[in-house]
Amino acid sequence: MSEEQGEPTDKSRDLLTIIMVFITLIAILLAVFLSPDSVFDEPPPNCKDCAYNTNQNKLKNAIAEYASRNDGTLPILNGTYTVTGCSNCSVINISALLPVNGGRILSEVPECCYLSPSGNDNCGGNASLGCNNEGSYIWLVDTQGNVFSYCAGAGCTTNNSGYQDVWP
Q1: Alpha-carbon dihedral 33, 34, 40, 43, rounded to 10 degrees
Q2: What's residue 78's pLDDT?
């Protein structure tokens, strides 16, 4: 059939194909750049950072539950530490949160709990509770129930509260 009968020519078909290819490429580029999970976004935190945050949240919830069961009393030991954001933080008594002592709030001592040679740690120096030399953190609580940590294990370069690039 000829052009006069309304059929597209080869040149017009080629032009339409080129236009469709460009539209498709633009759509793909827009999808990549406008995607909420774009390949250019920050990478997710490493799993050690996630593990730290998970343990901190578990302890914060455990402290709140313990306090609600015990008329606002916090499960603390005699030791204190000073860290960023807390000048006189008390050491959390992990033992009080365990089933063996009636706590039934935590099923076990978090793997990150450091066993301090001085005994000023979450297990009161009692290794049989689960604190160990491979842990890195001594968990602390202020009078409002906020949870902090003191990095004391091998690899700790600072004692500031928060994840310190070491785990457990």
Answers
A1: -160
A2: 87
Determine the Cα–Cα distance for residues 45 and 167; give it in Å rounded to an integer: 14
Which amino acid is it at 136? S
Structure tokens at 109: 């001592």
pLDDT confidence band for 157 (50 / 70 / 90): confident
Nearby residues of 133 by Cβ (< 8 Å), 6 or more positions away = 114, 115, 153, 154
| Token code pair at residue 132 | 């160990």
What b/e readout covers 46-72, taking b as 16+ CB neighbours within 10 angstroms? eeeeebbeebbeebeebbebbeeeeee
Alpha carbons 131 and 117: distance in angstroms, whole number: 11
